[in-house]
Structure formats: structure tokens, C-alpha cells
Amino acid sequence: MRKTILFQIAIIVAGFMIVLLVIIEAAISHSSIRLFTEAKEELLGRDMEAISEDVYIRGCVPELMDYCIKHMDEVSSDVTQDPDFREAYKQFFPGLLERYGVEKYDDLSPTDFPAFSPEEQAVYAHLWYNFLTSYISDFQGYYGFSGMAIIDVIGENHSRIFSFGTTETSLDKETLEGVIADENERNGTLGKIVKKEQAEPEFGIAYSGEKGNWLIGYYPVLSETENTRYAVCVATDLKQFNKSLATQLKQILAFGFAVIAVFAGLLIWFLNRKVVRPVTRIQQSVRRYTDDKDTGKIVTDMEKVRMGNEIGMLAGDISHLAEEMERYTQENIDLVAEQERINTEMNLARNIQTSTLPSRFPAFPERREFNLYASMTPAKEVGGDFYDYFLINDEYLALVIADVSGKGIPAALFMMTAKSLIRDQLIAGRDPAAALERVNAQLSEGNTSVMFVTVWLAVVELSTGKGFACNAGHEDPVFKHTGGDFELLQYEHDRFVGPWKKACYHNRPFELHAGDCIFVYTDGVPETRNEDGEMFGEGRLTETLNQHPNAEPEKLIRYVHDVVNHFAGNAEQFDDITMLCFQFYGAQGQKEETN
Q1: 552-572 per-position pLDDT tens digit
Q2: Do 476 and 553 have their domain in common?
Q3: Helix 62-70 crosses helix 118-143 at what angle (to 10 degrees)?
Q4: Contact in structure between 271 and 7 (CB atoms under 8 Å)
């Protein structure tokens, strides 16, 4: 890990510094070239202005220069030492040669030269052109230009060199013409000179293959005519400057790389000491902790990582996390134990609930006056539903279905108590209403939790089919006469049983005939919900019963249970589903045919 991190850090730092150096180098190079060019242009501008003024003062008038262009081969030849030429010069301009022609050149005006005779013009132009060439060479040598010339800027001889300097370091005429032509083609600087109303310099960059790059400057030669006809042109070689700049940049890069190496070394040393080593210690401690789960050991190891930064905070957080994980693990162990205890209690409660319910069917095989069936499907959480049926004596049958409030062990115990009390009161000879009044009084004693039970209770005289029912806050029963459909029997209910010290209950008489059927249930049936949250409802219950109205009680209950389960789908069952169905055949015990 340590080598990998340090190697990655070294690569990142070196890459960043190299990129930074390249950017700095490019910025320095660009800035240096720009500053050099600006400074050079400023100097050249002043120099060319002075040269232009001198050329004009020396008699550079358009008529004289035009004559030189037309007779270039003659005036450019060196015949100043020819005796015939000197004799002709003395004849036309006595005393001028001995004084180098200075006074005459200074005094020459555009009207002087055209007034000369052809012979005088030839001698004067020849001498003047040679003087101009020597003058340009002196200027070129003095200022250190790579090339200097007077060029034509308009007319058919556009860009053509009129006169140029000839020092040992200067460009030859063909090369200088190529440089001027290249620059003009790229930038069109000469055209700007012609269009300007004031005498100002213009500059451009020319490229001449392997011979280098050139800074070209132009300045108009002053004239008494309207338009500029000629211009001073200077060429400065940038190659030497580029070499000097490259050398400086190499030195900067070398120094920069040395600084990078030192900085990277110090940075890696610092990171190794302050980051990598502490992180490695943390990593090793965490790996040991995953193997042995020794909280005390990892807390001690983290305390050794004393860093006043985020790494120290990380070590403290890991130490705290280990302690929290140990606490959480212990809490989880305790929670699992508690959950196991609760599950055990739930299983016990479920066993209590189911063991107290009669489950032998047919219930009374020796009795042919009736048939009944009951079922209870407990929910995930144990509730308090129960049903019961028993013969009070040979003539009377008791039917009970009830739902205790609450869940778990308390509800199971309350259910057992209520079931036992109801049975005792009925066997003692009390009618349903009197029995529930007595049970309510007994359950209310010490009922600090205010638990209660809803009860539907009926007693049927088997010889006549007559009986009494009492509904203490329970679901409405469903009744079917022979040959008819199941219908919900709705009437006013009495109070539920348990929380009241004194409550009044009422008997409701009924009479059954052969083939009549009673179907009672707890709220777990109509309140079953599907995945969309919709309840099954009492309407669906009666519709389901009427699909098989003549079925025997067991088949009917099983069919209703299947329909309810299909309706619920994957939705969880939250309440017990309890049903009881009683079918009366009469004293003769003649069973009707069932579907």
C-alpha cells in the first residue's frame, strides 16, 4: 500500500509540475517575443524616421529617383574614378566634387534636377546614386540591420528595391527582395504605407525558409508631392533572438526540474511520515479487528495515531465505531434473545388459543338434528378469537363465537377466562342475556387494562328449533331459510363484555326449520384487505355464501376461506379469521341433499 500511494503521489506531483513548467515556458516565450517585438518596433520606428529625413535632405526628390530607376544600369556602375567622368563632373558642377556634393545635395529641389541638361542629369544622377548607396550602407552598419533599402511603393516597380546597403553581414539583393515580397504577400504592409496620410512606420513578419524569420519595417520617404512614392525598408533577423530565448528557456526548465525534484522529494517524505504511515497503521489495525473483534486492542492502536488532522480524527472515529459495534452486537444478542422469548410466548399463546377450541368433527356424530363446523385461522400475531359449542343437556345446544381485544398472551388468557365463564353460566341454566350479564360482571373485576370481548351467543332447543341469541357488540350473523339465500341479519347490538361493572343484555328469540342455516364469524373475515388496501366486506361474504347455499357447513366454511385468501393475495393477514356454521335438520333428523 505504502509504495503504491507514494508512487501515485510522485507521478501526480511530477506531472503537475511538468505541465506547470510547460505553461510557464509558453507564457514566457510568448511574452518575451511580444515585448521584444514591441521594443524593436519602437526603436526601428525612430531610426527609420531619422533615415527618411536624411534621405530627403540629401536630395531624394522623385524626379531624380525616377531618373535613376530608368537608367539603373548606368547610375549603379562605379565610374567615379574614371577621368572622363571626373572631367565631365568638374565641367558641369565646378567645386562640388571636392566638397563631396554636400551643399548642392542639401539645396537640390524638385525644380533643379529637371532644369539640368541630359549630360548634367546623367553625371549628377550617377554621382548621387553612388552617394545614396554608400549612405545606406553606413546607416545599416551603424544600426546593425540585416538589410536596408529604398523601395518603390507605387507604380509598375512596386516593391522593387531602388537602392540597398552592401555591408559584409547584409542580405544580398535577391534575398532581401524575397523577404519583402513574402512579407507583403502575408500582410500587405506596403499598401498601408501608401494609404496613410501621415508619415508613420508599419511593421510585419516575414519568413524566408531556412534563412530565418524577419521583422520588416517600412517608413515613407518625405516628399513635397502629394503621394508617397518611396519608402525606407529595414529587415532585422529574429533568429539570433530566438536562439537566445531558447537558451534562456532551457536554463529555466533545468532549474525548474531541479526545483521539482527537491520539492517532490520533500513532499514524498512528508506524506510518508504524516499520511502513509498513520494510514497503514490504521489499515493493519482494522484488518486485525475484522479477524479477532478485539475492541480493546483496536482502541489502543487508534490512540497511538496522534495526529492533529483528519487522519487523527479518522482514527478516533474508527475507535468510536468499534466501541459502538461492540455495544450494538451485544444489544443485538440481547434483542435476539428477547425475540426468541417473545416467539416462545407467542407459540405458547397460540397453543393456548387453539388447544381450548373444540376441533373434533363431526362434533356430535350421534345427533342427527343438526350439523355444524367451525374453524379459526390465527394471524401472525396471536389474537383472542374463539368459538365454542356444547350440549347444555340433551335438549339444548349452545353456540358461541367471540373476539377478544388485544394481542399476545394477555388476549389469550382473557379469551380462556371468558370462554370458561360463558360455558359455566350456560351450564348453570342461565339464558344468553343473563349469562353475559354475569360474565361481564366477573370480567370487570380487576380489569385494569380495560380489555373486552365481543360475543355472539345462542342457545337452540333441538326438538323445536326455537332459541334465543344475544349479540354483545359482535358482527351481524348471516341467516338462510330453506330454499332461500343467505342474508345479513342486522339489528341493534348490546355492549361488548368485560369493561363494565354492570351492563344489560337482551335475548332475541328465533325459530329454525329443517334446512335453515346460521353462519357467524369474527371481524377478520370482512376486514381482510388485499394488496390495494380494499376490504373484503360483508357484501362479498354474502355473495360468496350464496354461490353454494346448500353446501354442508364444513364445505361452506372451507370455500369461504379459499375465497378470502384469494382476495387477499400477497397481503399480510393481520387478524384471526374465525367462522362457525350451524345447519338445522329438525327433530326427525332428515338431512337434505346438498350441493
Answers
A1: 999 999 999 999 999 999 888
A2: yes
A3: 100
A4: no
